[in-house]
Every structure is written in structure tokens, then in C-alpha cells.
What we know:
Elements: E1 4-9, H1 17-30, E2 34-38, E3 52-54, H2 57-63, H3 80-86, H4 89-94, E4 97-104, H5 106-121, E5 127-132, H6 150-171, E6 174-179, H7 186-194, E7 199-201, H8 213-229, E8 235-240, H9 242-246, H10 249-254, H11 274-289, E9 295-300, H12 311-329, E10 335-339, E11 345-349, H13 350-353, H14 370-378, H15 388-391, H16 403-407
Parallel strand pairs: 1-2, 1-4, 4-5, 5-10, 6-8, 6-9, 7-8
Antiparallel strand pairs: 2-3, 10-11
Helix pairs in contact: 1-2, 1-12, 6-7
Amino acid sequence: MKESVIILTGGGPAPGMNTVVGSIAKAFLANGYRVLGLHGGYSGLFSPNPNFEELNFVLADTIFKRGGSYLMMSRFKPTQEDFDKNFNLKLFQDNNIKLLVTVGGDDTASTANRVAKFLVAKSYPIHNIHVPKTIDNDLPLPMNTPTYGFNSAKAEGAHIAATVYEDARTSGNWLIVAAMGRSAGHLALHVGAACHYPMIIIPEMFNKSEITIDKIIKLSISAIIKRAIMGIPYGAIMVSEGVFHSLSDEELKATGVHFTYDDHGHPELGKISKAVMFNDIIEKELKKIGMKVKSRPVEIGYDVRCQDPIAFDLTYCSQLGLGVYELFKKGETGCMVYVDPMGQINPLYLTDLQDETGKIPPRLVDIEGDMAQVFYKYVCHYITEADYAAAKAYVPDPEAYDFKKILNW
């Protein structure tokens, strides 16, 4: 029987998943391997009846430019009992599988690290290589290299956000926009910056101050008041969903939202609209202080995950997929494929990226870096000490809306 490679996709979709899978398939098929696609993410590795199929060139060539994921995904997270009792070694033996390729974000990478250690501990002759994807851009790749899918999601997110901003200008309203980003604010920052939003709120900006709902609302109203002083009655506020993950349990309860949680213990934010929630709270606060401002909520989320990848990701994901074969050919295992800014393919060993718990920690926005700081200094609008006298026409306590004092910057 021919030697085989098996591919699974975990977590949520990102533009370029099919490009990665199609490129892996083409490389291995050209070198005499069978290529198997495993549906259901990691659940298939721990099931007695895994759902998989053989991938051929025509299928790989058909899907590689498409958005979404041909291989069905899941957020299944194996327990220690799954590893002890349910790992389907027979799947690998029966199909002469020599390589397991996992495609996913931080949770999928952390599980890939567990799988790598498990395979070594059991002395199973199976290599494993991970491919880093996520529109959140929060895997710790060197030299600020993006995760695949991020640039495609950013491009579509900026298209939506620019349209929203033009609506705000045309109608004289304020739009409250929430963007995906569970642990980090990369997508919200880049989309908001691309469209010159007057306020961008991400979890990393609270590096010197505890994050609270009250501070988020005051930052938002600070922008509204500043623009009112400037004679500009419109604008848009970008909020990263990641601020939720930084809120205390008391703050979450105070929102009145009852969360459900996924298999990884994360609040299932996709089930609620963060934009609607923030908009409701902001409207109440504006009414309380007597400002007549109309605001509307907009969510940027699932509409950017399954779009067709832009040219950047088509090329980048092809390099990553072909890089899997290059690393496998060199005998690499227990690693993540990495394409550096010069286009060179290298392994990043999962054990080198893990924290003390064995998980792969997220990469956060460098809030002190120039990329973030120049936008907050020169593009965003907010109250400073110089605005106190003018701001008293709108609020009796302008200092409470001072951007730098809210954040303790």
C-alpha cells in the first residue's frame, strides 16, 4: 500500500484553508503519496468510525481558490481519557499514514502539541506538522509574520467598515462596529486604522488599567464629544470582541448577557451581538448626559471568515502547504510550518512556543509599538486636557472622558 498523509482542519474557518489543503495534496500526490482528508477536526482521530475521504488532483485543483473549508471542521478538544483510550491508531495502520497535518489557530496548535508529545511517548512512527491559520492573527509567529487568513479578513473587514463609515458621514449618525478577535485586537485595530476610525477599542490598550464596561463606554463617548467640539456630527467606533475576554466575571454579569461556552471554555461570542450590546449601553449613557446622538450597531464577524482568499493569502497559503512537504521530506515533526518575510520555509517547534501549561499562548497587539501608537496619537479623536473648557458644553466632568486618564497612559 502507498504511504499516506492525512489532513484535518480545526477551529473556525479562515480564508485560505482550501488553498493550504489543496497545495498539500498537490505536493504529496506529485510524489506518489495518497492524500486523505479527515472531516470533523480532531474528533476523527478519537472516533472508531472516522469520516475521511481520499483527495485527488482534480478536487485539490477545484477547491484551492475557494473560501471556507472543504474538510468539515470542529472545535473538538480531546480529553486525557481520549488520548488514553480512544486514539484511533488503526486508522493510521490501515492506511499506512506517515504524516498527520493539522490546520488551525491557537487552540488547534495547542492540541497539535499534545498530539506530538503523545506520538513520541507511544513511539508511533507518525510525523505531525501544523499549519498556522486564524483571522485573529494571534499565533506567535516571528518577525510579526501574519497568520494566513488575517489579510483576507482584514481586506473584507475594511471594505465593510469603510461603507459603514460613509453611511455615518452621509446620515450624520454614529456607528458602533464590533470585530472578531477572541484574545487579541489585531483585526479590530487594522480594520479601524485602515478606515481612520476616530476610536478603536482593543483589549491591549488597557495595559495600565483594568478593563471595565464603564471605561469602554467613556472612551466611546470621548470620541463623540471631541468630534462634536470639532463640528463633526458623525463617526464610527471600532470595538474588538476580545474586550469581553478581559472583563471580570462581575463585569460580564453586569452586562446582563448569559453566555454559553465552547469546548475550550471560551464564551461563545458568536451567539450574541457585541455591537448591539455596546450600542444599547452607549445610547443609554448618551441619553443620561443629554447628548442627542443617533447610533447604530454593525457586526463584522462571520461574514469575513469564509470569503475567497485575496492574492496575498493564495500565494502565502500555497507556500505553507508546499512547505509541509518540504519539512516532511527533511524528517521534521512536532512543528509548525513557517514562511518568513523573505519567503524561506522553516520549522517552528511547538515545544519552543508553548507556555508552562503546554498551550501555545496568543500573540497580542504591541500597544507600545509605532503601528498602534501613531493611529492613537494622530487619527483617533478623544478628549484631552486642552478640550476641557469646550467639553463642558456637553458634560460637567470632562476629565472623566479624558482618553489618557481613562487608560492611565
